[in-house]
Model the fold of this input.
Amino acid sequence: MEKIKQKKIILLIIYLIPMAILLYQYVVNDFSADQLLAYKYEYNTLKNAHIILFSVLFLLTYSALIATSISFNVIMNLFAGYLFGPFTGALCATIAITSGSFILFLLARSSTVKVRGKLEKPHFLKTEPKNIILTLFFMRLSPIIPAPLITIASGLYNLKSHIFLMTTFLGSLPLVFAYTVIGNHLESINHVSEIYDQPLIMSLLLLTIISLGPLLKQDVREMMKLSGNQSPLPSPD
Done:
């Protein structure tokens, strides 16, 4: 029992160390995504000189950021489009997101074994696998639902690994592609805030509407089902 507790404490410390370092850099050295953006030409030079090594390092770095829930998704997606092109970049970034999310998923699943049986599963996890896949896909598709929250919740409720991997990859790809298209023109962008022009805002809004529609529809169906199971009120005499 003590060994299990020590293992969980060690995993938690390993998980929190990168976030602590980033927080220190942010507070002390005023670190930001714009500082990373300032080195875009150097990154491109390194990529051209060592394409395979740089690509592997990019995938590992992005995966590590996702696994530790460090939110640099936007800048990493922009770099993916700038360095590898919109299509290849979107594929590389989505693979990194999926692998990093899977690491976090396994960590959440292994560290919540005891509390798992005490939690009541959400209604969509009690339905057919097809409904689970669609719901998780649209949750990943949404720009407004935090991705780490979906990952940790999936591990907490012991979701099957293949369903998690499939919905994470397919659900993340459209949003990543929207950023890699913009990243393909990163040479004319000096600040991350400059990417939020009208086309991107409209794309994010469209993805939000598309993703929320089926989720709300399912909630409505569940509410209707619950109301239908209730006994009718007695008619007045």
About this structure: The chain is about 75% helix and 0% strand. Residues 198-229 form the longest helix (32 residues).
